[in-house]
Specification:
The protein is of the alpha/beta class and 369 residues long. Helix 2 packs parallel to helix 9, helix 2 packs antiparallel against helix 10 and helix 10 runs parallel beside helix 14. The protein is globular. The structure holds 6-O-phosphono-alpha-D-glucopyranose. The site of 6-O-phosphono-alpha-D-glucopyranose (G6P) has 17 residues, from helix 5.
């Protein structure tokens, strides 16, 4: 087993470190940065459908649902198609309104999640075109869908999803840009820019992984916390949700992810000197607003751990701890900002003596309702 773990203590850590590779594999052969072009053979046949789609509905569970939220941000921003993201389990029991002009994208690492499969069957019955984003080749979901795009993350063993998530986000980025290309909502010049940056993401992820030693020290400080709050805005919001999910899954610390601006409508009541607040505070469109959220937390003596853009000084002066990540366009932020949060959960869980790869009560794939 040690051999399978490639020298890492746990599969989860190995999989976290595989991300520069798995992200690259998920875009390989699909992007042509110099020409500002993308090719997704699975979707080619459905170009007209995408062009005329009234709506895209994303269905998924767990971490895959978080990837869906990133997808919503990306598809609406670049392809200008309205997107709804649904928990598969809720969607299937809500008598949803679906038309033949709707596209459903089902996201699933395993391709075997029962609720996601049932949501697909329902949408199919009602005439929607169904695409899949799956990691396991030949699994059930790719067989149920009309077409799809595989993620190439390789087998994921750790129950808490890491590299499958970033691979899903990579593929959703490709889909957003692909539909933008078909619909002409983004110029070729802009696509050249975006794809060139996308191609550099694996290198930036590698840089983000270098914060590991610092993260070990921060984990030491946080490991006995009973609660943890994660805040983000824009594309940083799903990152906050995913950060919180990861922490609760493997360390059993109660954690919640929130859109930063919603803090004042509830979670702020919980903030005291015992409450760590992890904030995605990178230099994006909402930077200034997030800074004021940090000030609100500090005014109540909360412990602020901020994920910041390399070279940031403003947040550094306010936060208790800062973790730097390389600068990237807001579109790519989730691919990079997720990395330190995965490492933080991992180290906290290890320090608490938890079974990181097989957390209690959780299953890698939930094939029952
Ligand atoms: C389980 C796993 C999660 C996963 C979720 C959805 O809860 O523990 O890691 O995100 O199922 O699984 P899927 O295979 O459909 O992505």
């Amino acid at each position: 087993e040690m051999l399978e773990k490639g020298g890492y203590d746990h599969f989860m850590l190995k999989e976290i470190y595989e991300q520069p590779r798995s992200i690259k594999d998920s875009m390989r052969g699909r992007i042509y940065p110099n020409e500002g072009k993308l090719q997704l053979s699975g979707l080619k046949q459905y170009e007209e459908k995408f062009k005329n789609a009234d709506r895209i509905i994303i269905v998924a569970c767990g971490t895959s649902w978080h990837a869906g939220l990133v997808g919503e941000y990306l598809i609406e921003e670049f392809a200008r198609v309205p997107v709804e993201v649904e928990y598969a389990s809720e969607f299937r029991y809500r008598n949803p309104i679906i038309s033949e002009k709707d596209i459903v994208i089902a996201i699933s690492q395993s391709g075997e999640t029962a609720d996601t499969m049932a949501a697909i069957e329902l949408a199919k019955e009602r005439g929607a075109t169904i695409f899949g984003i799956c990691n396991v080749v030949g699994s059930s979901i790719p067989r149920l869908t009309h077409a799809g795009v595989y993620t190439h993350a390789g087998p994921e063993i750790g129950v808490a999803s890491t590299k499958a998530f970033t691979a899903q986000v990579t593929v959703l980025t490709l889909i957003a840009f692909y539909v933008a290309q078909i619909k002409g909502t983004v110029t070729t010049g802009k696509l050249v820019e975006l794809l060139t940056e996308l191609e550099s993401i694996p290198t930036l992820v590698e840089k983000a992984l270098k914060a590991n030693d610092l993260i070990v020290k921060i984990a030491e400080e946080l490991k006995d916390s009973r609660n943890c709050l994660f805040l983000g805005r824009g594309s940083g919001f799903p990152v906050a949700l995913e950060g919180a999910l990861k922490l609760k899954e493997i360390s059993y610390i109660h954690a919640e992810g929130y859109p930063a601006a919603e803090m004042k409508h509830g979670p702020i009541a919980l903030i005291d000197a015992e409450m760590p607040v992890i904030v995605i505070a990178t230099k994006n469109s909402s930077y200034e607003k997030v800074i004021s959220n940090i000030q609100e937390v500090k005014a109540r003596k909360g412990i602020v751990i901020a994920i910041v853009t390399e070279g940031d000084t403003d947040v550094k002066n306010m936060a208790d701890y800062t973790i730097e990540i390389p600068h990237a366009d807001e579109a790519f932020l989730p691919l990079i900002a997720t990395i330190p949060l995965q490492l933080l959960s991992y180290h906290i869980a290890v320090m608490r003596g938890c079974n990181v790869d097989q957390p209690r009560n959780l299953a890698k794939s939930v094939t029952v309702e």
